[in-house]
Each structure stands twice: as C-alpha cells, then as structure tokens.
Amino acid sequence: MVMSGTPVIDMQMVDGLADEIVKACVEFGCFRVVNHGVSAELMTEMKAVVSSLFDLPEEIKRRTANPNEHGKGYIGRNHIDQLHFSRVLVLMKFRILINFLIVLVPPFTKVYLGVTVTFTYCHKLTNHSFVRPTDIINRYIKAIRDLNGLLGRKLIEGNGLNGDLFDGWCCQLRMNKYHFSAESIGLTCAPIHSDPTFLTILPDDECVNGLQLVDKISGEFVPFDPVPGTLAVNIGDIGKAWSNGRYYNVNHRVLCFEPNTRYSIALFVLGPNNKIVEAPSKLVDSEHPRLYVPIDVEKFRHVRNTMGLRTGDALDLFSTTST
Q: In whole angstroms, what separates CA 170 from the centre of its chain?
C-alpha cells in the first residue's frame, strides 16, 4: 500500500464515515476531504488575505510581533537552505460548545480570538490598504472549526467511544509564504518533520505544489499534490499518542519545484486546555498495552524543540518503557 492512493473522503457520507477516517489515520496518517464545508470562494478570499498580510511593509508587519510570546504574530524571514521563509501565526482556542457561534460574532469576537487576531494583530494593520481581514479570517475559522469538530466526533465514533474529542482544545492557525526562486529549485524549504499536533488541516496551494510525505510501508517520499476542492488532513505526534500508537504520525517535507510563490494556511489542533493527553482506556488492552505516559502538550513541544527531535522520535521519551 502506497500513499499515491491516499484516500479522498466525502465528509457528507451517510454511512461508514467514521470508519473511513479512522482507517485513513491508521494506514496513511493522512487523507483528503471533500464536501468539507469550506467554500471555494472563502478559501480564495482567505488566500488573498494572507497574500495581503505578507505584502504589507516590513515595519507594519513587525507591529504584530510579540517577543514575550513566541509563535505569535509576524515571525519574519528565516534562511532555510537558501530560501526565504516567513510566517504569521494566530493562536486561538476552539470551544466547540453552543456559545461558540456567539463568540464568533462581533462584539464577542474578542472573547474568542482574545488578543491574537482582531484586537492585537489586525487592528495594528489597519489604514494600510488591508481590507476586511477579520471578517474573512473569522468566517474561515468558523468553517474550519466546524470541520474540525466533525472530524473529532467521527474519530471518537470510529473508536467506539463517546464524547466530543476536540471540545475546548487549543489550536493554532499558521500562515506561511515561501519565496521560491530559480536558484532554489530542488532544495528543501521545510525539512522532514512530523507535526507536534493531533492533526493538521491544510488547504492546498493549487498553483504551486511541493508537499511530500513519507510512505508508511516503503519509507520513501511520495508526492501529496494538490487536488482541487479538497482539504488535506494529516496526523501528528499527539494523534499517535492519543490513539495508543494506532495512528501514523506521517513525516513530510516541502520541496521547491518551480520559481513561484507558495502559500500555506495550516490549522494545527494542538491539545486540550488542561494540556494532558493520554490514550482512552478503551484503546488499551492485552494486545495493545499502553505505549505512552500521560503527555503534557506544552512540555512535549518544549522537549521536541530543544532536543531537535522533529521526526516523531520525541514520543520515545514519553514511552511507558522509557527510563
């Protein structure tokens, strides 16, 4: 089985949706979704917002940077294998409750986005030909929230559990811009890594590809090229830990194939608000002994980053057999 046959799952499937999602997480660690509730128009608008963000003057973008809160605001350009790579991060929390629909609507936006988008970042970018950023971002977040909630519920159902998996989980929206040039063709701009997340939801840049995944069986890189109208979903380290090792935390990278600009808008589903992740007892039995101790998500990310363990091996340090 190779990832060239990565599943495309219809999120409006009536029967068998939960089983299909779980199967894809186990066998591939990734899949694509159609009929996902994020309109093509909204994805186009969101990409335009991201492009506008990066096109702002450097001085304006740096107003969003917060040296006391790493990973928020404009990061700036990093030199990675002779490429320029920059990103804007938006930290947020998903609260999949009835009142979630309320907090997305002004004047309650501040309750949901806190100081990250509307009231810290985007207001600092006003009066600079940047039109309606928060409206589009909020609509995009709501649509992705709904999809993420459905994925969480189906993962619970597919494992024979009850509840709402991602209720109250902390998430992060990361917007990246890759500056590809003729000199960078063939180079790696995002080195091989797994995501330190439960899962990641990514709308493809249909104009520029470059994403490659490590096949679970062969260990070889295989392309994960854009498919119009779909969103890509992949499992990260926390997803593998929660599933007691059943889900495949797929390693991936981004290569430069053509001199063009590539954008990515990734939603990272990080972990619960209490920060602790562990496999449900129903996923632990004599054939599947508990593989990992309860994991503090923030501690895990710290260990992973400080030790440079970014290809899934950080989980070994949280193994129940680790000494």
A: 12
Domain boundaries, the chain: 3-203+214-318
Strand, coil or helix: what is 264? strand
Phi, psi of 86 (to 5 degrees): -135, 160
* Cα 137 to Cα 132: distance, rounded to the nearest angstrom: 9
Q: Which amino acid is located at 278 in the chain?
A: E
Cα angle value 102/108/109 (rounded, 5°) = 100
The closest of 25, 30, 11, 4 to 232, measured between CA atoms, is 30
The pLDDT-based confidence of 78 (bands split at 50, 70, 90) is low
Q: To which residue do tokens 């990565």 refer?
A: 6
Q: Are the CB atoms for 247 and 239 separated by under 8 Å?
A: yes
Residue 142 has pLDDT above 80, yes or no: yes
How many angstroms separate the CA atoms of 189 and 82, rounded?
A: 8
Tens digit of each residue's pLDDT (9 = 90 or more) over 257-275: 877 788 888 888 988 877 7
Pick the CATH number of 3-203+214-318 from 2.60.120.380, 1.10.357.140, 2.60.120.330, 1.10.3720.10: 2.60.120.330
- Residues 74, 61: contact at Cβ < 8 Å? yes
Evaluate whether 136 touches 127 at the Cβ level (below 8 Å): no
- Please give the mean pLDDT across all residues of the chain: 79
